[in-house]
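Data availability (excerpt). The following record was deposited with the supplementary files.
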Amino acid sequence: MLSIIPVLVLMILFFVMMFGIGFILNMLMKTTWFPCFLFVIVILPVVVYSLWDRGEVPFWTHVGSFQLVDYLTGVAGLIGAYMSGWTIRTLRIKGFKMF
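Predicted structure:
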């Protein structure tokens, strides 16, 4: 059975980490949705590929072996990246200038 407290801590950690990294990237690169694309196109595939034991199981079996906690963590990180873009966009609409 999945213990809920470590999963919640992990989800909050990934949300805050991706929100912070995304917010900083948005300010420095003057983009809005780059962190979302970076998370989905680069970070998730690199993590999945790096955890794959190439000699033992086929790739799709490896992807199917992930548990609910892995998917919840990935979704929390994606939500954090999205929220950083939404926050920057809202601040720019209200007239705040970042860098």
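Summary of structural features: Residues 31-46+62-98 form one domain.
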